[in-house]
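To whoever is covering the structure queue this week,

Two jobs came back overnight. Logging them here so there's a record in the thread.

Job A:
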Amino acid sequence: MLDALRFITCGSVDDGKSTLIGRLLYESKQIFEDHYQELEKASGKYGTQGKELDLALLVDGLQAEREQGITIDVAYRFFSTENRKFIVADTPGHEQYTRNMATGASTADLAVLLIDARKGLLTQTKRHSRIVSMLGVRHIVVAVNKMDMIGWDEAAFNAIVTDIRALVENFGFASVQAIPMSALTGDNVAFHCEQTPWYTGPSLLEYLESVDVSKPEAIQPFRMPVQYVNRPNSEFRGYCGCVASGSINVGDSIRVVPGGAEAKVKSVVIWQGEQPTANTGDAVTITLDREVDVSRGQVLSSVDDPIEISDQFEASVLCLSEHHLVPGRPYLIKLHTAQVGVTISNIKFKLDINQGSHLAASTLELNDIGEVTLYTNLPVAFESYKQCKTLGAFILIDRMTNETVAAGMINFALRRASNVHWQSVEINKAARATLKSQKPACIWFTGLSGSGKSTIANLLEKRLFVAGQHTYLLDGDNVRHGLNRDLGFTEADRVENIRRVAEVAKLMVDAGLIVIVSFISPFRAEREYARSLFQEGEFVEVFVDTPLTECEARDVKGLYAKARQGKIANFTGLSSPYERPDSPEIQLNTLNCSPDQCVQTILSEVIKQQ
């Protein structure tokens, strides 16, 4: 049985990636007659080679791609020779589609990096080199394309090879093979070129047929993330998943991580029936000899060498979203089959694509590559990405929009995470609340500057104080004079501002207080993060819904006027967005209600929850 090689073509725009794949399909005789006829018609309409076949159109299947002559999406093609099967991903070269290129690289064993011989190394060439290295691709072919357009100049080829080898010297590739070629004519793609007597290496197809891409996962300890618990009836309980590394036999002992329960494998089931063993890459259902608590996201692991768990990591990430990655903002992390809450606690640096140097950064923008520290709200089982791609690769998801905002690779766990534990205390929140004869709560005011938040919040605290309640008011302006005086008004600083205040408010509620928080808090994600820190019924979101025109008309502090004049940057409602709450517990319209009436509305809601 022939083994299969998964590879990608990558590089900058118009370097010939689609043409190269079309050439490989053509030379391996993978084009059927009807497809060939369709190609002839498409070449006449969309082709760039005159009367000749435009092989790039075999891959550029979208109409937008054919009309523009570019690749937008990842296109997968299958072909084979007598020696090997191939799965190739044609990935886009345009910077705005870098996220699609990363998708193709994530499952590849080898990357064919195309370089236009006339242009040499470009920024996107360097970016793609770093991404395939970061994603664990161990083998790279430097395909110096369009050599026919520079007369098969040996010196030009050698200069490009010298530049690329200097670039990737520390990228950790197991092999780097440089090949001069012309995808358009097929020279050195499927057959040797008579124009390059100075090149004695293999053609591209010869190299692809022979390169050793055996994976280290096969010789590592057994790991299988549980994807689904299969219980069709009371007599059968199986754990479904794909073996990420190692192998497992009937009778072997396994450990469930996280959790720690141990059991022996009773059977290994595939769709044809039972089998004695399962190996890396096999999709199986495993049954155990006794009932244990196992659920999706946990990992069945070797007892002798169990998988690690942690809740803090150092990781490399590629930003895939036009919305910046911001420290302190809550996201979801999808790591193998586990999905838990996560926060970027720190951005250590972002990479300079051209020089490879480390740059200071407070946020990561679209296509930025950076190194970050992550904190998950629950411990998860993991391997470093270098040890096992399946158990070390993750994506970050925006909680509000479900957009995939980043792809990442775990480098290692931060060991201090496993050394820090909750200290048990005997006086708890319930005891402190009983002493004060009240139910602690966080009443969170949000709204535009000038909406009336501070006025209503201050009046509310006075009413509660007179009633004998124990309170504390956290006001946005006041907190910025102390706790948050080091923060500005960028998106990243606003996120950190709310994160700190939310944590302080949580401590105050734990102390048994009714804490009143009055902050613009413009982003839904941060308000939802604040809510997540409290128990059900403890968090009351109050949206002071005052129109922007009214807030500007009030402008007690003169801030809107200065913002209109360009003297205040990132001003909420004008140059920075305000995201209205979707379903606040209380919504106040200050145009129709006086501050006293607003306070009475809040008190009625709070009393209802007591």
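Job B:
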Amino acid sequence: MRARTDHLAGAMALAALLLAGSARAEDAPDAAATTAAEQVRQAGEAARRGDPLLAGEAAGEAAPAAAGHGGEDHADGDAHPAEAAAGGETGHGEAGTTQADAEAGHGESGPAEADPAHGEAEAGHGETAPGEADAHGDGTDAAHGEAAEHHEPAPKRGPQPYEVIRSLQFLQDQAARGNASANRVQARLLQWYGPAFERASQETWKDPRNQRAAALFVLSGGPPAVLRMILAKNDFPPDVRPLLDGALAYVENRQKEAETLLSALDTATMEPGLAAQVNLAVAQMQEKAAPDKALERLRRVMLDASGTLLEEAALRLGMVLAEQLGEHARADDYARLYFARYASSIYAGNFRARFTALYVARPFDQAAETVELVEDAVARISLVDQVNIYLSIGRRALVAGNMKLAGLAGARVLDVRNLSQAARQRALLYVAASTLTERDTSETLASLEAIDREILHPADRKLFDAAMGVLGEIRKPLMAAAEPDPANPTEPTSAAALDSSVVDRATKLLDAVRSDLEGMDK
């Protein structure tokens, strides 16, 4: 199974790169590239027929052509960067976001829209070789020879840096839509083309598209050493250096220097993709010291990179910053938009954790309103995911002491039809535990005893045991109340003192449980 996964990952990498290259009409056709395109087309056909192994093998045959032409030079004598491409995986985190979760591109236009059949159509050109004219011998040799010369393939070259970046951005977009394989393939491309970037000629880096690609390479998760080497070996115009130096400082965690360089750039004059990447990086550096400025940067990211992994990351961070600044309606809008667009993102788990923590922290006296806002935000995602979010809110609310919210979240789960037994038991526990000091103890005890403890998660078993312990402590003085005080048989126990003792004891026990759960919840 692992071998098949690797084959498919390789096929995706090759397809992304070939589609990115064929999207540029001005690029010269490459005979090897068209052969690779045909192989990728065959791989796609095999995958559609349900033969992933054959698909992987077909893509594997295309690898040498797509990866470049080892040892061959450009017509001008410059070795092409693709010569150094090598396999392997890197340990990069959240691509293009520097660990925001991720839960993790550019719009649906670009590489994904290129026609993979384009390479197949071109593959038919140049099939007549000069030697074929000799077979005629009727005076047409020269004519055939001239035709053959016109159909000779252009000088071979591998992908330009900006084409590699297109492929990376395409894969990032796929990760934002939940394709975990795309994220793994992206890591491989970053590893394969790092050495190729280092070996690119000075002429290559004169192209403004490649200059931007050098910055985007590391901002997308590429090794910092690659950009450091590029800067050391090549001369760049003075107006380009701040971008490259700032990107390098950012990925090397030289935050002060990076913020100074990148925040001074005029992103309004940049192409949208690059502007969004720079604004996201600056926002992540400003989120603690200047959350208002960071939030404005994130707003620009959402405008410039709608539908991409960059917007996905901006929404995750933007929701939190808006809430911190007291802009609750704006935070609600970002949450709703995220679930509508990126509920399947590979970083969605990170967002859900932030989402539940944010809404549990809303004022306790607004518990009912909070549940309504949550219901509106998650309305577009699957019912299973909705149930998991409500259960997460219920547990976090108990840990935070927001008993009313915990009970409402648990009750919302119990309203779902065809609920799994495990989810039902959790919801029953949260509802019962949220009313320990409010309901009649016998009713609460009956609710807890109806729960199947063995089905619960170990952390919830701890909560169950604690709730039963609290009930036991509450019931003790009630049972002893009918008995006179041995020291003073004629004086009945004060009801007020009894109530105070019960509440104090219950509060201490709940606080102890909450402290234990907080440690487990982190």
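Note for Job B: The chain is about 65% helix and 0% strand.

Please reply-all if you pick these up so we don't duplicate work.
Q.
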